[in-house]
Write a structure and sequence with these properties.
The protein is of the alpha/beta class. It has helices at about 70-75, 80-85, 155-160, 190-210, 225-235, 260-275, 280-290, 300-320, 355-360, 390-400, 420, 430-445, 465-470, and strands at about 60-65, 100-105, 125-130, 135-140, 165-170, 220-225, 245-250, 370-375, 405-410, 455.
């Protein structure tokens, strides 16, 4: 039987200590540690008009004039949360400096309270950064996974403000491993993320116009993982708000599949037999590769089994299909197949129609209305490329929007760039591919120069880790 409508739970999710390592994933994050925001004392001479920068619709906000908007300064000043972006980028990623400006932190009205940044205990938090030297553009993003509003700061927030963009990001309205407690019905918490990005985009455009005395000439949507999904959804449903977008390994939600509920249970079911070796290992390996986990990526499987697959399957299944495990919340961790209500036995195609209706709330169509550049690593074993971005590229083509899309498969890239440090030479970081994609999108929008055709970007032979951290030509 379907469960009763969910109520908002105003208590913090207590995660076991073992999940601390899951800060490496784009789906979970460590508890927020950002301190209460400090007084606005950094640049008083340039801060006389911050009180006029009201964020439309915000229930609370606080503006500060900062000598440094990048993480080179915001960590010390308390205007970011390092735990929120931990593990998403390589350790050697350079941090730009010399970007003074105004930062606005705040939140929109919401009833859930999982985001504890700044002691606010309030979801729908946002950050808006306004560099003094503005290039006329605005970048808007939503957090990856179930992280908070600062999650993109290192991956591309620093880059955006250093290039002169205004930058805005949202926590999507529900955070943490218990995000599924938000909303009244299955799918509501995920659907809220789309609303929050739209809400922030509209508000940020007005703030930008007030700060610089003219509206942005270019508004770009950017995001990774769940944030990449948000980019796709925005360009499909609100293309009027944007000039284009960059989609970094976006999640695919399709009512009929594929979606992560169709392939993660297969990993949970078959990986233990593969890892155990013996007579069943070869068959289990074949089942894994048939499910989309590519041959050659086996060295990444143990880590993902321990930290990614199980938790991700359980919390997203709970959001969309809470009736599967009855009164149990988010299943039983690492249960063996055959255990009652075990997620390793989950079969999405056999679930009731209301489950598919919940997925329909967030489903993608491929009907983008503005230029989009997508890229995805071929060694992504959280969101396997053959079951996600490959499928989305075909959807875009089927909808007759291929002229608006470029798609780059990045050989040996995986879901989080920190794994390039753990496996040097075997995993390629994707952050330089973002820089290449963003530059190509700018040239496409500003000068009509179309990016190179969609292709697989081969791993350069003999390239060292230092070169791979800055090198990702879209023609290669």
């Amino acid at each position: 039987m379907p469960r009763a409508p969910r109520r908002h739970h105003h208590r913090r999710w207590l995660r076991p200590a073992a999940l601390a390592a899951a800060a490496l994933t784009a789906w979970t994050a460590a508890p927020a540690t950002a301190a209460p925001l400090p007084p606005d004392t950094a640049r008083p001479a340039l801060c006389s008009r911050t009180d006029t920068l009201k964020v439309p619709g915000a229930a609370h906000q606080r503006a500060a004039c900062l000598t440094e908007l990048t993480t080179a300064g915001t960590v010390a000043s308390g205007h970011t949360d390092p735990a929120d972006w931990a593990g998403l980028t390589p350790a050697g990623l350079a941090t730009p400096t010399g970007v003074p400006g105004i930062q606005i932190d705040g939140y929109f009205p919401d009833t859930s309270t999982t985001n504890t940044n700044h002691g606010w205990n309030h979801d729908a938090q946002f950050v808006i950064r306004l560099p003094d030297r503005w290039n006329g553009g605005l970048v808007v993003s939503g957090a990856p996974g179930v992280r908070e509003q600062y999650a993109n700061d290192r991956a591309f927030g620093d880059w955006a403000v250093s290039q002169g963009y205004a930058f805005a990001a949202t926590d999507k309205g529900a955070t943490g491993a218990a995000f599924h407690r938000d909303g009244e019905a299955p799918g509501d918490a995920l659907a809220e993320g789309n609303h929050r990005v739209t809400q922030l985009t509209r508000a940020a455009r007005q703030v930008v116009a007030r700060r610089y005395h003219r509206p942005p000439t270019r508004t770009l949507a950017m995001g990774m993982s769940n944030g990449g999904y948000l980019v796709r959804w925005q360009l499909e449903n609100h293309p009027e708000l944007y000039n284009g977008g960059v989609d970094w390994e976006g999640t695919l939600w399709r009512t009929e599949g594929p979606n992560l509920l169709t392939f993660l249970p297969l990993a949970l079911r078959h990986y233990p037999s593969y890892a155990a070796g013996g007579a069943g290992a070869e068959q289990a390996h074949r089942a894994m590769t048939d499910a989309g986990f590519p041959a050659g990526s086996e060295f990444l499987w143990p880590f993902h089994h321990q930290y990614y697959w199980d938790l991700t399957q359980r919390i997203y299944r709970e959001e969309l299909d809470p009736g599967f495990d009855g009164a149990t919340e988010a299943g039983t961790p690492f249960c063996a197949p055959g255990t009652p209500a075990c997620d390793a036995d989950y079969v999405y195609a056999e679930r009731p129609e209301e489950v598919h209706q919940a997925v329909a709330k967030i489903a993608l169509t491929g009907r983008i209305g503005k230029p989009l550049i997508s890229f995805h690593g071929t060694y992504d074993v959280l969101l396997p490329i053959s079951r996600s971005s490959d499928v989305y590229a075909r959807l875009v083509e089927r909808e007759g929007r291929g002229h608006l899309h470029r798609y780059y498969r990045v050989e040996a890239g995986t879901h989080v760039d920190s794994l390039a440090d753990a496996f040097p030479g075997r995993v390629r970081p994707l952050v330089p591919c973002h820089r290449s994609a963003a530059t190509a999108l700018e040239r496409w929008l500003d000068h009509g120069v179309r990016p190179p055709s969609s292709r697989t970007l081969k791993l350069p032979a003999g390239a060292d880790a230092g070169k791979l951290l800055t090198y990702c030509p879209l023609r290669g």
